[in-house]
Amino acid sequence: MPGQRLQGCRSLHINEDNGRFLLLAVLIILYLLCGAAVFSAIERPSEVQAHGKWNRTLFNFSETFNISLDDLNSFLREYETAIAAGIRADALRPRWDFTGAFYFVGTVVSTIGEYKNRAYQ
Prior knowledge:
Elements: H1 2-11, H2 16-64, H3 69-84, H4 98-119
Protein backbone atom coordinates (compact mmCIF):
# COMPACT_ATOMS: atom_id res chain seq x y z
CA MET A 1 0.00 0.00 0.00
CA PRO A 2 2.65 2.62 0.89
CA GLY A 3 4.38 1.95 -2.44
CA GLN A 4 1.21 2.74 -4.34
CA ARG A 5 0.79 6.06 -2.53
CA LEU A 6 4.34 7.04 -3.32
CA GLN A 7 3.74 6.26 -6.96
CA GLY A 8 0.62 8.45 -6.94
CA CYS A 9 2.57 11.34 -5.41
CA ARG A 10 5.22 11.06 -8.11
CA SER A 11 2.60 11.48 -10.81
CA LEU A 12 1.61 14.85 -9.25
CA HIS A 13 5.15 16.19 -9.58
CA ILE A 14 5.24 19.52 -11.43
CA ASN A 15 8.34 20.40 -13.42
CA GLU A 16 9.98 23.80 -12.95
CA ASP A 17 8.41 25.49 -16.00
CA ASN A 18 4.91 24.36 -15.11
CA GLY A 19 5.48 25.40 -11.49
CA ARG A 20 6.51 28.89 -12.58
CA PHE A 21 3.49 29.15 -14.85
CA LEU A 22 1.18 28.00 -12.06
CA LEU A 23 2.75 30.45 -9.60
CA LEU A 24 2.42 33.29 -12.12
CA ALA A 25 -1.23 32.41 -12.77
CA VAL A 26 -1.98 32.38 -9.02
CA LEU A 27 -0.20 35.72 -8.52
CA ILE A 28 -2.09 37.31 -11.42
CA ILE A 29 -5.41 36.08 -10.02
CA LEU A 30 -4.52 37.44 -6.57
CA TYR A 31 -3.47 40.76 -8.12
CA LEU A 32 -6.79 40.99 -10.00
CA LEU A 33 -8.78 40.13 -6.88
CA CYS A 34 -6.97 42.78 -4.83
CA GLY A 35 -7.43 45.34 -7.60
CA ALA A 36 -11.15 44.57 -7.78
CA ALA A 37 -11.48 44.92 -4.02
CA VAL A 38 -9.69 48.30 -4.00
CA PHE A 39 -11.63 49.61 -7.00
CA SER A 40 -14.93 48.49 -5.49
CA ALA A 41 -14.10 50.10 -2.14
CA ILE A 42 -13.23 53.38 -3.84
CA GLU A 43 -16.06 53.55 -6.39
CA ARG A 44 -19.02 51.92 -4.64
CA PRO A 45 -19.87 54.77 -2.20
CA SER A 46 -20.07 57.36 -4.99
CA GLU A 47 -22.17 54.97 -7.08
CA VAL A 48 -24.63 54.52 -4.20
CA GLN A 49 -24.77 58.29 -3.70
CA ALA A 50 -25.36 58.93 -7.43
CA HIS A 51 -28.06 56.26 -7.52
CA GLY A 52 -29.84 57.86 -4.55
CA LYS A 53 -29.66 61.29 -6.19
CA TRP A 54 -31.04 59.85 -9.44
CA ASN A 55 -33.94 58.19 -7.60
CA ARG A 56 -34.80 61.50 -5.89
CA THR A 57 -34.68 63.28 -9.26
CA LEU A 58 -36.99 60.69 -10.82
CA PHE A 59 -39.41 60.95 -7.90
CA ASN A 60 -39.46 64.76 -8.07
CA PHE A 61 -39.99 64.69 -11.84
CA SER A 62 -42.76 62.13 -11.44
CA GLU A 63 -44.50 64.23 -8.82
CA THR A 64 -44.06 67.53 -10.67
CA PHE A 65 -45.43 66.30 -14.01
CA ASN A 66 -47.90 63.76 -12.61
CA ILE A 67 -46.31 60.77 -14.36
CA SER A 68 -46.18 57.37 -12.70
CA LEU A 69 -42.71 56.07 -11.88
CA ASP A 70 -43.44 52.91 -13.90
CA ASP A 71 -44.28 54.93 -17.02
CA LEU A 72 -41.24 57.14 -16.53
CA ASN A 73 -38.92 54.14 -16.08
CA SER A 74 -40.43 52.50 -19.16
CA PHE A 75 -39.77 55.64 -21.20
CA LEU A 76 -36.19 55.84 -19.92
CA ARG A 77 -35.57 52.19 -20.85
CA GLU A 78 -36.76 52.95 -24.39
CA TYR A 79 -34.48 55.99 -24.46
CA GLU A 80 -31.50 53.89 -23.34
CA THR A 81 -32.27 51.39 -26.12
CA ALA A 82 -32.33 54.20 -28.67
CA ILE A 83 -29.02 55.61 -27.42
CA ALA A 84 -27.41 52.15 -27.54
CA ALA A 85 -28.62 51.79 -31.14
CA GLY A 86 -26.85 55.04 -32.01
CA ILE A 87 -29.90 57.30 -32.26
CA ARG A 88 -29.15 60.82 -31.10
CA ALA A 89 -31.73 63.51 -30.36
CA ASP A 90 -29.76 66.31 -32.03
CA ALA A 91 -27.94 64.36 -34.72
CA LEU A 92 -26.34 66.72 -37.21
CA ARG A 93 -25.27 63.77 -39.31
CA PRO A 94 -25.79 60.01 -39.17
CA ARG A 95 -23.50 58.17 -36.79
CA TRP A 96 -22.35 55.67 -39.42
CA ASP A 97 -21.98 57.82 -42.48
CA PHE A 98 -18.93 57.22 -44.68
CA THR A 99 -16.56 59.48 -42.72
CA GLY A 100 -17.56 57.93 -39.38
CA ALA A 101 -17.17 54.41 -40.78
CA PHE A 102 -13.80 55.34 -42.33
CA TYR A 103 -12.58 56.69 -38.97
CA PHE A 104 -13.70 53.51 -37.20
CA VAL A 105 -12.00 51.22 -39.74
CA GLY A 106 -8.80 53.28 -39.55
CA THR A 107 -8.78 53.02 -35.76
CA VAL A 108 -9.28 49.24 -35.86
CA VAL A 109 -6.62 48.69 -38.53
CA SER A 110 -4.05 50.87 -36.78
CA THR A 111 -4.71 49.20 -33.43
CA ILE A 112 -4.40 45.69 -34.87
CA GLY A 113 -1.30 46.72 -36.83
CA GLU A 114 0.31 48.11 -33.69
CA TYR A 115 -0.52 44.91 -31.80
CA LYS A 116 0.99 42.72 -34.50
CA ASN A 117 4.15 44.85 -34.65
CA ARG A 118 4.62 44.49 -30.90
CA ALA A 119 4.01 40.73 -31.05
CA TYR A 120 6.79 40.18 -33.60
CA GLN A 121 9.43 42.29 -31.86
